[in-house]
């Protein structure tokens, strides 16, 4: 397997029409902080919903997907919170204008008509990883769309991951692009993250191990378990001692970072196409939310998504 490759690939690069797997809350949060405040004439905040809808329409137009599915976080604590009290422990609650829009998000998702998945005890990331695995096993290309780096674990086989930042069009990753950015394979990212730490998920990492050193350790030993099994080979001595002190922590942090791709999903269709019937429902909601500038994009998206 080649260790290297592209630092990012364009969205539509000839791999066939994928199924979109959308990380709805991540994309909605991203839109809220990326766009200036927007309100309807009635004073209802809409910037996050507008940004999410704009991203979906862009994907429909550029990717011409066969269909899409959506994953949402469960409101209940997950197995990660149960295992590690500090997991995302200091994240502030959503600002009120964002909270109001999250409450409206189900109506927007319903209008698009894509299946929505949630599962108590799991994060949306786990559901997307599970959907990606099912599609990969069925030989279906998939494009996971999120603002969350954790989902790069899905970027292998026929699955790409498109990451959106706060500004710009974002970047699309396959396995080679993950190698180029992190120096490890997608499946090794949990081990890299356990060693290097992650501010976003509040995983501390091992003092003295930065991103490059973590990648070198994973490349040499394969995983956290391999590093711990070969501590006598690690230099300098202070780093070896630090890894040894955090032996149990490393196993826990690796498990926290690892996406579960075996979640028992609700029975039913795993994805649905965007149809003319759904266009009418989306148009009606756009009229209610006063998304006038998105209406022409909606018409183009329907034409692009047609078989």
Helix segment tally = 13
Q: How helical, in percent, are the residues?
A: 40-55%
Largest sheet features: 6 strands, mixed
Q: How much strand content do the residues show?
A: 5-15%
Secondary-structure class: alpha/beta
Mean model confidence by pLDDT: 89
CATH class of the largest domain: Alpha Beta
Number of domains: 2
CATH topology of the largest domain: Rossmann fold
Uncertain spans: 1-14
Structure description:
The longest helix has 17 residues. The protein is of the alpha/beta class and 307 residues long. A 6-stranded mixed β-sheet has the order 3-2-1-4-5-6. The chain contains 13 helices and 6 strands. The protein has 2 domains: 207 residues, Rossmann fold; 72 residues, 5' to 3' exonuclease, C-terminal subdomain (DNA polymerase, domain 1, Orthogonal Bundle). The radius of gyration is 20 Å and the shape is elongated.
Write the layout of secondary structure elements.
Elements: E1 19-23, H1 24-34, H2 47-63, E2 67-71, H3 79-83, H4 96-112, E3 116-117, H5 124-137, E4 142-146, E5 159-163, E6 171-173, H6 175-182, H7 189-196, H8 211-221, H9 224-229, H10 237-245, H11 247-257, H12 276-289, H13 295-305
Parallel strand pairs: 1-2, 1-4, 2-3, 4-5
Antiparallel strand pairs: 5-6
